Amino acid sequence: MTGWVLVPLGVALFMGSLLTFRANYAGVTVAGESMSPTYGVGERLFYERVDGSQVRRGDVVLYRMPARYRDLPVIQRVVGVGGDRVVGRVDGGPITVNGKPLPEPYVRDADPVAGMPFEATVPEGRLYMLGDNRGNSRDSRSFDDESGGGSVPFTAVQGRIVDDANVPLALGAAMVLAVVAGLVGAACGLAGWLVGRRRRAAYGPPPVYTP
């Protein structure tokens, strides 16, 4: 009977890991080049389900703006949050946020503006988004005539890209372990049942006493 105990334990572990993963993480496949070279076309990424208020400058987020991208989700990098003054000039220098240079080692060809200068003050509750491939990205710069100066509202954010996949992988490993535990438990339980049956068959039926 000991082996059978592993079966409900494995099921509980599997369901717990699955529910935790689905509640906190999801996957997305990169379909464009706006985040190259950081992420390439076809690359599979995990994202953590967070609210827009939880992301910070430098985070790469998944968001959805139906009026801009035909209701398709996109991933871009946060370079400005509410209250920030973000400026990019065509002079070969870095983008500045509130007058301070923004280090961006991830930008393609080390060109933070790529011929598209901009200036924006980010409203509260919104984010200013840019792709890492600035020369091939329809980001906040392309929608500066909209309300909010091209920025994205918190409500559009669906999650934050997870560069360290240890947590999702750990949950996946837990699910695999749960399946293995369940199978081992079932196998042990079945083996024990068969052994007991053979023993009973070898000894024959128990004697019956009559008065």
Descriptive notes:
The chain is of the alpha+beta class and 211 residues long. The protein has two domains: 1-25 and 164-199; 31-163, Umud Fragment, subunit A (Ribbon). The chain has three helices and eleven strands; from the N terminus they run H-E-E-E-H-E-E-E-E-E-E-E-E-H. The strands form two sheets. A seven-stranded antiparallel beta sheet has the order 1-2-11-3-4-9-10. A four-stranded antiparallel beta sheet has the order 7-6-5-8, with no helix packed on it. The chain is globular and about 65 Å long. The two termini are 35 Å apart. The mean pLDDT is 80.
The general outline is globular
How many β strands by DSSP? 11
CATH class of the largest domain: Mainly Beta
Q: How does the major sheet shape up?
A: 7 strands, antiparallel
Distance between the termini: 35 Å
Helical content, roughly?
A: 25-40%
CATH architecture of the largest domain: Ribbon
Enumerate the strands of the largest sheet in spatial order, edge to edge or round the barrel: 1-2-11-3-4-9-10
Task: Set down the secondary structure blueprint.
Elements (H helix, E strand, L loop, with lengths): L1 H23 E5 L14 E5 L11 E5 L1 H4 L3 E9 L3 E4 L7 E2 L2 E2 L16 E4 L4 E5 L21 E2 L3 E6 L3 H38 L8
Helix pairs in contact: 1-3
